[in-house]
Amino acid sequence: MMSRGVLQKLKRLVRMSPGEFAWRTGQALRVRIDRFCPNSSLNDLSDRTLIRSLDIDVPNDVIAARAKLWEARRSRTMPRFFVEPVELHAITGRIAELFPDEAANAARQADAILAGRFDILGYRGVEFGNPPRWNRDPVNGVTFPDVFWADISSPDKRPGGDPKIVWELHRHQYFQQLGKAYVFTGDAKYAECFAAHVRDWMANNPPGRGLAWASGLELAFRAMSWLWAMHLFRDTIDQALLWDMIKWLRVHALRIEAYLSYYYAPNTHLQGEGLGLWMLGTMLPELRPSERWRRLGGRILSDEIRRQVRPDGIEYEQSTYYHRYSTDFYLQRAILGELNGDPLERGELAILERMVAAVTATLTPAGTTPMIGDSDGGRALRMEEWEPNDPGALLSTAAAWFNNGEFKFAAQRCNPAQAGPAIETIWLLGPGAVERYASVESREPPAASAALKDGGYFVMRSSWAPDADYLWFDCGPMGMPGAGHGHADTLAFELWAAGLPMIIDPGTFRYPPPDRDPWRATRTHNTVTVDGVDQGVADGPFCWALEPRHKLHHWLTGKAFDYVDGEHDGYTRLADPVVHRRKVMFVKGRYWIVSDELTTRGRHAYEWHFHLAPGCRAQVSDERAVIRNGDAGLMIVPAERMTMSVAACRVSEVYGTVKDAEQIVCSAVAEGDTTAAFLLFPFRDEPSEVTFERAGDGIFRVVDAESESICHLTGAGARIG
């Protein structure tokens, strides 16, 4: 009998296009050459090769060549980086004016690094050492072996542990934190730590060996971190260190170029690799291949923003976190390109602006993003600390860059106590960012509710006030082909009442098994499971062999109510097929009705899951659930008789961490076509008496202390009255 791995490879082979087959064949040959020829051009760190690669006139003598390169880089005026040495004093001055504690915060973070303690993803104070033990995962007690990179690139070739923890260290984004501390304080110990770490890393991570070289995206992140370090520490980097860093950056670019993720990971991995290549090509014009890298990276970014972003601005991985990743990549590309006479094309800027608008449209009342799909905790830049679901820095920079008042309004919703731009905005746009941001007139978006139909995101919002009622609904695809970062969450929703989270997506937790599948399963989302199975069929940790197909029937929005109606066929693979159709009506300022129709012939066991935000507490009595979060609350009242209970669950707000929470589980066994409906009724202080009952097919009667309403959720649409 064939192993699962062999079967997966055969399936992929059958699905391959001729272009993909040719590319993978070429990659396989390149890997073999890389394996058996460790001194190949991809790994060449010799001084002579660098001399031949330089596009400036240098002597053959290595010592003299170092001096010439060092002087050429210090005397040049172009290309420009986000931060130039002459601006650093002004930048830190503007930041100190707006954020008086930032210098102390930067020093505190850097001092922890000097003590060998690192904040990695959701883990705090991880003991890596100083210098770090580069291939050690201290969280799980696993050391990744020093082997050829391809022998550790796949999950089934790793010795347990979580490679993301090690990769995060190898990204060297903590160099940005050390650099901030050095620029703010002038203390040489931070520059000395950076120099010692980069030299130790070069001594212990030869090209092509170990986890550090097993992903092109990780090489791109590391290269970009080195570019930041070369500018933040410019006055402390001597000729020998600069020479060695450029040797290694050249190898990084060659290896990214050789192993681009065109088919392996044609998502944000490819975007990040493109950005890394483009940035290396832009910032290292002294190297002969730099123009080739700049053009190739630019072409990848240009192609992928058109291929990977849907017309409504949603990035096609169907993950709000990876959407932010992608948006950050392109915003950096736009800013640095403008500084160096290589701007994004007008059409690409329009797509980028739609991506930011999508973030704005889906903001919760607290100014956060719902954590839909995977969230890996990674960052495109670490010049400011923010929570994974806080897009305030992105919106602040986009507001100043695009001169967009709606983006500024959204940024202010994220951080209402913040008077000026985000710290990250000042690092990216320079000291003039403060005035540039101030000149943008804040403007509330004209519509509170929104439909992003291509991505399948629907937002029902009572207003843009901080205490608004809010519901996010998913009636869209699981994601890019294979849905690597998508979850089995079609027709799921999140709900906030009186500006507080009530029903939320539990998150991602971690990627390695056995944690992977439970967190992306249907039962871990706020929708219906049938016979205890998922809507889709997983095929490895980052692929789905079978994805539910969705269909949107109706979207209506108006002053009185919003209404969405969609279905999916994920359960039609069962021996007795089931089609799930869900309708949601939001009577604005009052309540929601969620109505499920399950079309089938046979007998099935159904479960409805409502995962509560940490801090919420629930009670079930009299066939209804009462949820409290502070002074606000939510009642869940079913129209049909069913079993209701409170169960424990877990929520992961940051990669690698969990919090205890509760969920409401409703269950029923039924035969043939089945309907179930729930009234979701927000309240303040104490719940009021509410009656919720069917008054006909798709018609519901709601009676509370204020009024009586008849709500029609029918095949033709919806109405009240």
How would you characterize the overall build of this protein?
The protein is 36% helix and 23% strand. It contains 20 helices and 27 strands. A hairpin with a 2-residue loop joins strand 1 and strand 2. Helix 4 (62-75) crosses helix 11, helix 14 packs parallel to helix 16 (392-402) and helix 16 (392-402) packs antiparallel against helix 17 (405-414). The protein is globular.
Q: What is the secondary structure topology, with strand pairs?
A:
Elements: H1 4-15, H2 18-36, H3 47-53, H4 62-75, H5 88-98, H6 102-114, E1 117-120, E2 123-127, E3 136-137, E4 142-143, H7 163-170, H8 174-185, H9 188-204, H10 216-232, H11 239-258, H12 268-283, H13 290-308, H14 320-339, H15 346-361, H16 392-402, H17 405-414, H18 423-429, H19 433-438, E5 450-452, E6 457-461, E7 470-474, E8 493-497, E9 500-503, H20 516-520, E10 528-530, E11 537-538, E12 544-546, E13 550-557, E14 561-571, E15 578-587, E16 591-599, E17 603-611, E18 617-621, E19 624-629, E20 632-638, E21 643-651, E22 659-671, E23 674-684, E24 691-696, E25 699-703, E26 708-714, E27 717-720
Antiparallel strand pairs: 1-2, 3-4, 5-6, 6-7, 7-8, 8-9, 10-17, 11-12, 13-14, 14-15, 15-16, 16-23, 17-22, 18-19, 19-20, 20-23, 21-22, 24-25, 25-26, 26-27
